Amino acid sequence: MRRVFSGNPASPGMALGKVRLERPARFSIDNSPLPDSEVDTEIARLERAFAVAREDMAELRRKLHGALAREVGEFIDAHALLLDDPELIEGLRAMIRKGHYRAAAALNAQRDRLVAVFDNMDDPYLRSRGEDVDHVIARVQSALARQASSEEKKLATRVGEILVTESIAPGELAHMASHGILAVVAGSGSPYSHSAILARSLHLPMLVNVEGVLEDLRDGDLALVDGVHGEVVVHPTAQDLAQYRNWQRETLREGQRLAQLARSETRTRDGHKLRLFANAERPEDIERARNLGVAGIGLYRTEFLFLAQSGLPSEDEQFAAYRDVVLGAGGLPVTIRTLDLGADKADAAGLVMAKEPNPALGVRGVRLSLRQPDVFVTQLRAVLRASCYGPLRILVPMISNAAEMIDVRRLLEACARDLRTAGHEIPDQFELGAMVEVPAAAINVRALLHVADFVAIGSNDLTQYVLAADRNNDQLGKLYEPAHPAVLGLLAHVIVHARRAHKPVCLCGEIAGDPAFAPVLVALGLEDFSMLPDRILAQRDALARCDRKALRAVAPRLLRARDSDEIAALIGSVHAPG
Ligand code: PEP
Ligand code: MG
Question: What is the distance in A from the centroid of ligand 2 to the CA of 256?
Fold first, then answer.
């Protein structure tokens, strides 16, 4: 019998397929007891994982020279010692043999125990060593995960299904997408979450916050997902299917209309030239973006590389990916953002292991990178090597003060020197930019502009931090509001100061590609927008309807507005959406 479930649209499009109920648990730890017959194999897996982790560290050690070797080397040596610690390894073996733990569960339990021991130490230095334990065990977990599991093999047959799940982390989504799922329906979540952004980038229709689906649907039910209106129709009727075909036809027609804009410039109605850049996560996105006439890649999120596979990508793997992006961009500038793991993006590679009470306010983005210099250096080296192939800029996420930028630049320069010594042709200059997404960075942007070559505003996070509204929490509803005057005031502040400092400023949060925000952003003086390739044409169309002169004239009043309704009314007084 036909049934309809409603939720919030998180990624547009429609999909027709069979339901598969699941809470993907690929990276959750299996705590079930290990059968006797598997003990020896499990110990062998654990030992193999230790050996791989040791080899990873040794390889990194071999690659470092000069100042970098001194700085990061000490850290690597401490980790290598832990990896060789006979007590740790013997303890784990005993847990598997006697306690019937699985290797990953034993590692987790040991980590928690050891971290607790360090946490209770009086000496602050010793206390902080608990982090090393955490990192080392994460490395072994990651090596363990790289040994293909039977679960992974089972997933391979699941092409053409609609995943129905309570919630989904970006890593899991990336993995499921690569196995051919058609759409995602989640019981909770928000359209501003990283999973939702990823789904949009993968063209995977997605609904979040859909009540009752997990209880009421069965595996194999036929379902029609409507990512535009936020509905799932189970056992669709002939009429629903006709609507689906209509949607397919209309999408094609609208696509053809917008396609005519693909090669044109972006100009406002009164002729002011703007630049549209693409947000991308995979090398494949680049060609699409280029065909849409973008000015470059404004944000290349590197998390995908870390989330799509188990284990950390090596320097060579990362280099190949970044080089392909630069080559694919065909001479257009590419902005590669360094790893922004942490918070909700934790994490296939096992990097973010500590349970943080407030992950969004915790060790994410540059904070994580600076605490794990071995992982960071690997990435910086890969990016620098790729920069020989075309114009490349480096962007650092979650910057909250100028000192972090100075630390990153120091590491980057050391990496460049190191690579040159090893015979790589590294350009003399590289542009290093800061994401402005922490309120402190926005308020104090002048300090940041002294140490950054450019800034990119991350309005997704800036909104959540300014309004203290978790971007992933569907319960907050309209409280997460990028059009709030406080958020727009900060955007204007950053744009003005970057302009005065003669440094490029781009906006790369979701609102940059939202036609409803086009007039507001033009009013605030924004000229560089970065968005998912899918949004480029519709946004070019929307910007072409904006009269920049008239919109700029209402900017002072916009900034004094009491609420978003007043902002909408002011915009409405000088702009008709068309
Ligand atoms: C942002 O915060 O606006 C942003 C572009 O970064 P992300 O969505 O990846 O956090
Ligand atoms: Mg962000």
Answer: 33
